[in-house]
Each structure stands twice: as C-alpha cells, then as structure tokens.
Amino acid sequence: MAAGLLAAGALRMTWEIPLTRLLRGQELLPPRLDTGTRERIGQTSSAVALGGLRTLVATFLNLRAHTRFTEQRWGELALLFDTITDLAPRTRYYWETGSWHQAYNAASHHLNDSKLPPLRRREAWRSSIRAGRAFLERGIRNNPDDWRLHAALGFLLTDPNKVPAFGDADDCFAAAADAYRRAAEQPDALGYVRRSMLYALARIDDRQDEALALARALHAEGARNHTPTLLCLLLVLESRADPRLDTGRRAIELFGGERRAYDALCNHWRRTRERFPVDGVAAALRSIEARLGIPESESILKSPPPAPFDPDQAFGN
Amino acid sequence: MNAHVPAGTRRGGHVVRILTIAAHAFTQLARMKVFHFLALFAVVAIASNFLNLPQHEGPESAGAAVLRSIKSWSLGAMTLFSVVIAVAATALLIPKDIEDRTLYTILAKPVPRIDYLAGRLLGVLLLLFVSLLAMDLLMTAVLQVRTAIVLGEQRDMAAALGWPPDAVESLLAETRAAGPGWPLQGAVAAVFVRAAVMASIALLISTFSTSTLFTTVVGLLVYFIGHFQADARDFWLQGGEAGEGAAARLASLALALVLPDFQLFNVIDAVIEGSVVPLATLGRLVLAGGYYVVLFTLASWFIFAEKEI
C-alpha cells in the first residue's frame, strides 16, 4: 500500500504543480509567508495563518494596530502594518491605513511633540512621511491595477505640508503627476484623477506646456471639469504661454461673470501654501476689481498671502 | 443469495448500502448533538456584525471595513469548525461502531468493507455539507443586512458632502462587491472540499489508530503539515541548488508524496480580499479534492480489509 500511496503521490505532482501555478497566476494564492513575518506574529498566529486563515490573523492584528495608534507607538505600528500587509497584500485598506498612520499621524505627532529636541523632531517628521510614501509605493507594487492607491500616492505627494519632506518640489510634483496618470489609466478610475494630474503638472516649472494642453483638453470635455481650480490654472497657464493676454477679460469669459471670477481668483491668490503658479492673476484681479468698483485700499493684493509651510520655522531652526 | 441477483442490481446494491450506512452515520452524529456548534457560529457571525470594533477608517468609508471583517471572521470560523468536525466526527465513527458492536452486525452481513467505509465517510460529508450550508446561510443573511445598512450610510454621507454621482456610484459598487455574492460561495466550496479531504485522512488514520484521541491529534497535525506540502515539494524540486543533504531532500519528497497540498484551498483569503475564483478554477480545485478523497479512502480500504475485527 505504501508503494501505491507514493505512486499516487508522484502522479498527483503532475497536476498539483500546474494548479499551484494557475492559482498564483490568477493571484488567488497569496505569496508565501517569509520567516520574518512568521516570527513577528508568533507561533500560534503563524499556525492559524498557515492553516489558511491569513486574513483572519490580519483582522486581529489590525485591532492591535488601532491600540498602538491610540498609544502613539509609531514604530510598533509601522511594524504591525508590515506584518498585516504581508498577510493580506491585496487589501487596499491596509496599505492606505498604514501609509496614512506614518505620513500623517506619526508626522503630525513629531511636528508637535515638544519632548524631542528640534533637530530630532524634524528628522522623525521627515522620515515618517518618507516611510508613509515608501509603504504606499510597496502597496502599489503589490496592487498595480488599483487606481485608488495610485491616487492616494498622488494626494500625499501634493500635500503642501508634506512636500518639504521630499526635498525637491518639482520632483515631488512630477512623481505625483505620474501617480495620477497611472491611476487615470485604470478603467474604473474616477474623473477627478485627471484633474488632479493637471493640478500636479501645473506646479512643475518645465512642464507647463504639457499642463496647458491637458487643461484645454479637460476644459473642452465639458462642465463637469469646470472646477474653480481648473479654470484658474487654465487662465494662469494661458497667461504664461502668452504674456500679452488680457487676463481680466479672459477670466470673466472662463468663469461666466465678474463676481464668480473675482471670488475664485482671490481664493487662488491665497493658495500659496499649495505652490500653484499665479502668472497673470494679479493683473486679472486688478482689472476685475476696477470693474467691480473695489477701492484699491480693499484690494486682495494689499493683504499678504499666507507663507508656504516652512520646516525651518515649524521646528524652530 | 447474491449470486442469483443480476450484476446491475448488485451494483445498485452497493449504492443503496453506502447510502444506508451514510444515513445511519449522519443520524448517529446528529444524535451526538454535533450541530450544537452552530449556535457558537451564530454568536461569532452576529457578534462580528454588531460589535463596533475599533477601525482606522475615515468617515467616508462609513463602516465598509466591517463587511470584510464579517467575511473574515465567518469564513475563518467555518474553516475551523469544518476541519475539527471532519476530523473528530470521522475519528469517532469506527471506535463507536466497535463499542456499540454495530460494526460486527454490519460486517456479519454481505457488506463489503469498502461500502462500510464509503458509507461512513459519506455520512460525515453530509454532516459537513448541512453544517456549512447552515453557516453559509447565516453569514449571507448577516452580510446582507449589514451591507444594506452601510449602503444607506454611504448614500447619506455622499449627499451631505455633495459628492458627484460617479463618485457615489463607484463607492456603492465597491461596497456591494464586498457584500454577499457568488464569489463568496466559491470560498465556501473550497472550505467544504478541504474539510472533505480532512475527513478522508481521518478515516485512513482511524483504520489503524488505537484510539479516537490518537486519530484526532494526528489528523490535526496532518492538517497543519499539509500546508507545508507545497514548500516540501519545491524544496525537493529545487534541491541540491543550495547544497542540501540527501536525507533532507528525501524527507521532503516523502512529505510531498504522502500528504495533500492544503495550500491549494487557501483561495479563501483571496476571496475575502475581493478576488473572484473563476468557475473553471473552482472545478479544478474540486477535482483535486476528489482525487485526494478517493486516494485516501482506497488506502483506508486496503488497511481495513486486512484488519481482524
């Protein structure tokens, strides 16, 4: 009988191996648990996870992660999310949440935590944001077809409070535009993703032509894309391409009224933290203020816009 | 007497005998109050719905994470219950038949031993099927109720925030996909097939085991080791590349040849994470499970046929 069992075992290898390959190809079988993950979750959870209940162990660890979050134990929280995503690599929620904890919650904690000296706080803040980005990028490598993860990366890379942590702003916005482009390539992506790609492109100095072409294409697609930000950027990009443009008249044309154009441009003028270009906006505002009869003393241009986020100032260097 | 019966009827006789023994085994197990565990499952399923466990989600998801949590808890409980029942129920049957002297009564009649084993196994499979069906219905009902609640909350939240229709529809479609549906039934089928394989292994062990406890413990060990079978197989196939010893390679080969590959049925995790098992793939999994069940049942017969009772 033993010989029969072994022979049957050899026979079934001929279909077990192709079936395993098929299931892996269809992404129905998760990658193997590495030794590090097995050690981190302990023997009992390891046995449960190996018994085909990886998502259940991930659910339990997610509860534990919530406790670590409330206790502000950021290092342990990051390790927990590494483990959780090893167990359930195709659940977007874990990638988004793990990244959010590091790039937003841990970073904000370091920004405000007065117990550390300024230099260390700044370094902890910077490394948390970078770790959040790296985590999200790992999620994207595991789930390249998930547009929401690409969009989440784009969102992080255009967050005015995070950009200084990444060094060069142009590189950061270029990476964001690329993330939004990859999100937009997915068939189920929502329409805002292409607008967000434009918002990122418009902030890169040497890609304004590309941004203008996209802004015109989006504008031509219809009212759905006629958001105040897109209309402001279209005006700015057109003004940069043609410095002789009468921006006041063009703004009224784009917004369909003096008051609407004025309100939107005032708002755009004050969005300095987000580093949007403002070419031609001052001229447009002056022109519309004259039409609306706003005295020069009450001009929006008289009040200084808020300064962009500056880590040196925030950390008291 | 059988000699006067036409061959076709004798084949029919096999089926009737197996079904009779299966029905008896099912009744016997039901009388042991095995179904009481369903009450525990009901508590797990309902508690996973109503306990507001802490989540990290923002308000925009409006409780959608709880749907994944319900599936995870429910399918996890179904896997554990079905494997434990498969092993424990099968381990009980032969010793109980010997203790009650039912086995002697059955085998004193012209009942081939394979009919007896197949009937007992079928009885356990019927028990597993009924149990999983009940758990599946409960899980689907809980998911249905909770999905409706989450959809309502998301509609209210989207209206309050003035979301555009495409964004609302995208969110609702994602939530509906996380609710009850056919993909989930693929996972339940995988749970059943894995439990069926475990029952056939427990049957094999019980043919040479000395006690119910031994069968149960060895059966559960085989279950966990079976999840490493694919690793052992890969180790054998890639052997020698890292300079492994011949003994280690032979041990891994023996493991790969004797034990079933339980990792194949881990598609359950992928379903919880939102994947869909194609029907053709599910069919191949069922065939794989069928091969294991037939193989281990035949092996049980070889041992049981020689056993002195």
How would you sum up this structure, described in words?
The complex is a heterodimer of chains A (317) and B (309). Chain A is built from 15 helices and no strands. Chain A has helices at 2-25, 35-50, 54-70, 74-87, 92-112, 118-142, 147-157, 169-184, 192-201, 208-220, 228-241, 247-255, 258-269, 281-292, 311-314. By secondary structure, chain B is mainly α. Helices cover 78% and strands 0% of the residues of chain B. Chain B has helices spanning 7-31, 37-50, 65-99, 102-108, 113-161, 165-178, 182-208, 212-226, 229-237, 246-258, 267-272, 279-306. The two termini of chain B are 24 Å apart. Mean pLDDT of chain B is 85; it is low at 1-9. The interface between A and B is large, with 50 and 60 residues.
Helical percentage of chain A? 55-70%
Query: How many helices of chain B does DSSP assign?
Result: 12
Gross morphology of chain B: globular
User: How would you describe the oligomerization state of the chains in this entry?
Assistant: heterodimer
The helix content of chain B is over 70%
Please give the number of β-strands of chain A.
0
As residue ranges, the low-confidence spans of chain B are: 1-9
CA distance, first residue to last residue of chain A: 79 Å
Question: Would you report the number of β strands of chain B?
Answer: 0
Quick structural summary:
The complex is a heterodimer of chains A (317) and B (309). With 317 residues, chain A is mainly alpha-helical.
Which helices and strands occur, and which strands form pairs?
The complex is a heterodimer of chains A (317) and B (309).
Chain A: H1 2-25, H2 35-50, H3 54-70, H4 74-87, H5 92-112, H6 118-142, H7 147-157, H8 169-184, H9 192-201, H10 208-220, H11 228-241, H12 247-255, H13 258-269, H14 281-292, H15 311-314
Helix pairs in contact in A: 2-3, 2-4, 3-4, 4-5, 5-6, 5-7, 6-7, 7-8, 8-9, 9-10, 10-11, 11-12, 12-13, 12-14, 13-14
Chain B: H1 7-31, H2 37-50, H3 65-99, H4 102-108, H5 113-161, H6 165-178, H7 182-208, H8 212-226, H9 229-237, H10 246-258, H11 267-272, H12 279-306
Helix pairs in contact in B: 1-5, 2-3, 2-5, 3-5, 3-7, 3-8, 5-6, 5-7, 5-12, 7-8, 7-12, 9-10
